[in-house]
Amino acid sequence: MAGSSGGTASSSPLPAPPAPKILLAKPGLVTTGPAVGKFGRAGSEDETVPHRSRMPAIGSLNLLSDSWEFHIDRFLPFLTENTDFTVVGVIGPPGVGKSTIMNELYGFDSSSPGMLPPFTIQSEDNKAMARHCSVGIEPRISAERLILLDTQSVFSPSILAEMMRPDGSSTISVLSGENLSAELAHELMAIQLGVLLASICHILLVVSDGIHDDSMWQLLLTVDLLKHGIPDPSLVTSSHVQSSNLGLQRENKDKAVEGEEYMAAPVLVHTKLQDEQCSPCNLVHLRKTVAQYFSFSSFMVEKHENAGKENLVASTTCTRSNDLNLFLIPSKNKDDLPRAQYESYFSGLMKLRDKVLSMNCPSFGRSVSEREWLKNSAKIWELVKSSSSIAEYSRTLKNSGMFRK
Length: 405
What we know:
alpha/beta; 7 strands
């Protein structure tokens, strides 16, 4: 399997550059042997034990762990000194199809025998038990050097249940040195995740459930409000982290005005739509709503004007509202109809992939390699966790009475 051969560096002074590693699936789940069943799992447990013992643990490659800490050591060997790469992140509530979309962006062929999808798709058992299948941030790398960041669900009841102590406090420290209730910490986790992705990604997919759910739009505006002062991963330095630790975020904001401010290009994706919701008339109405909703956000300013000036109205599933890309993905079961009136589920996914691969997304302040991007992303995370803006927002929420103290 590509990416599983390990990193055996040469001791020669000028070694030949190694071939890029491609991280396909969760290494702890990929199996060998002829008896391969559904989803590439071998039929015999004995066949998988030797192979699994040579691979990292399933969750060890995660950039963000379940303890809300950023780890780079396991993932770093999969990155190179290549500077021509694109980082795509995704954020959304449970069960909206985030992992399915990321698998499509990866180019995974589900008909390939013996291969697991790069990102685990929620099973029927997980749905029935209301469990989540992604933790923190799970990274994968495609052949096109797309660094794909799948994330745990935001506003997930199962994640909240796992992090809540009997007294209602949080087991996870989301703000440095502050003891918060689990409900408030859970809310801040979504904001911190959004701020991080907006800071380290080129493209951020914001996925909503159905056409009437605007909770992710609200989260995106909150991210826009609280992100300022955090530079892109090509410009962050140790002085940023030190000043943030001292609470001097005003200095960071001044630097941002000088050119360090950065925001990933958002792509709004609405999934699980019924056939009539994909009508051109409904799409025009939604486009106007998006334009009004984000009219005063930084997503609509001229700095993203070059991000996709080409005509995006290729079908009823894709359009633009000024600077925001908007995709509508029909419900999968509508493909069971003999003749669908509008776009199909699979066609919608493919067109979303084509758009992301062809986007002229915002660039970082300077050219960086994949490895430098990862190391600096860890510094960005420290800035996010110690952000005075997010801490002040937390105190405002706490004093509002919406969350237990």
